[in-house]
Structures are given as C-alpha cells and as structure tokens.
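thread: overnight batch results

M.L. [08:02]
morning all. the overnight job finished for the chain we discussed friday. pasting input first so we're all looking at the same thing
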Amino acid sequence: MTEDSRTVWLEVAINGPWSRDLQPLAPRSDDAIITDGIACAKAGASIIHLHIFDETGDRQVDDAGQYARIIRAIHEETGAIVYGTLPFHASSAERPLSAVERYAAVEEMAKDGVIEWSIVDPGSVNVSSFQGMKEGREGFVYLNPEDHIRRGLTLARDHGFTPSYAIYEPGFVRQGAALHAATPGAPQPVYRFMFSQAYSFGFPPEPYALDAYLQLLKNAAPGAPWMVAGLGVDITPMIGPAVKAGGHVRVGLEDAPMRDKRSNLDWIAIAVDEITKAGGRVAAPDEVRAAHKS
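M.L. [08:03]
and the structure it wrote out:
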C-alpha cells in the first residue's frame, strides 16, 4: 500500500464504555452522539468511533438497528467513516458470548452495507489502573479468544470492511499479522498502538515505545497502516512523532485521561494543530478510503 505520509487520518473515539463519573463530557444519548459525531467530522475527523447505550444512558448495548441509525445519520451528513464497538466476550450475565454472538450486530450491519470498519482486536490483556491497584480494586481481563479474532477477520473478508486492530501489547502485532495472513482476502488491518498513563498494559506514551512498535510492525506486517491512540492517556506528545514517521492519529473522550475537561472538539483542535506543526495534513474521508485500498 502506498500513500502520502504527510496525509494523516484523524479518528475520534467520542465516548467509550466509561461511566458518567469517569467521562462526564462524553455523549451518551443517540441524539447527542449524532450531534457530536457530525461536529467532529466537520472539524476534521475522517473516522468516528462510538459506543451506544440504552435509554437511560447508563448501560452499553449492542443493537444493530440502533447502531445503523446513528452511523447513517453521521455518515450521510459528513461522509465520515463511522463504526462501533463489540460487546465484551464475558459481558453476558449467564455465560460468555460465542464468537458468532459477539459479532452478530457487526455481521448484520456488514450485510446491510452500514459499516466500513469494525473492531477486531487480536489478543487478550489485563486492564488494571495504577490507582485501582493501589486502592485494592481489581481490573478486568479483556478477552479476545482466537476463534473470535478469526470470526472478525472472516467477516471482514466476506463483506470487505477494514479490521481495526487495537494493539494493547506487542504480541498483538504478531498475532494479528499472523491471523490476517491466515485469512486470505481479508482487507489490511489498521494497527492502533494503545499507549497509557493510567493503565498498566503495554507501553507509556514514550518515543522508545513507538520505535519498538514500528520495528515490530516492519517485521510482522510491513507497509500496514498504523496510528497512535490509547486509554487513560494524553496522546498529544506522540502526535508529532507519529506524523513524521508516517502514521495516523486517534483522539477523543474514550482515550483521554479520566474526567477530562476537554471536549471531543477540543481534542480534534489539538490534534489538527499538532498534525499541521509536524508537516501533515488531515485527510478527508475519501482520501482515507482511497489510501487504504491503494
């Protein structure tokens, strides 16, 4: 794949699974998500990632029809690439979800032509905050069994959507690349390096960490597109180095430090400024599509 390394894809993750206490500025109702998504796209984000909630705004849900209404409303107004998340493997109160169950909404939307990207995270990891460990509060295990990863890649191959890989640990790069190679015809995944200051997984947002990821990616999946992102992190210092190294950027209230006082639009303004200072230019949605297919 070839692309102008100075043309930068900007993604915004506008809410995430956090409670109102942890991210009070994140949109939660359908109307608020649509309004924020449209505003973010018009401000420069070519890719919008979102989670959806029940009518109370307190419980995350995985309803294909609700997703489709929101995704279409944002896309039709702005042309942005818009995609949702997956339910957790163990989110059922009675039993863990099977791979088919977990990807049911994605499959339905893919068949209907609603989505262009989808989460396909290639590994499992403990997600524990430093503060929580200090206070004796346990984190959780983010589980992505291999059959779930294979299911996501198979659906990507069958329906042509882009797998979005969240890379929490270096091994995710190697497993993601190997499973992609084992699924001929699946579109090239986007490798999203997940840095954190609040959580103990992976790397902190430091230059050596980006260098390590890029060397590993060069060996495992040469030429694959990548971006910097994270959870509980101010990714700002990593934006310039990423742009100069040919990468892309994700910001937003899913990724930001908890109880952040900056809105999604504030984060986009920060990202656009950092991208520009590093010699980059924010891509339009059709430029992302064209670059990823070239």
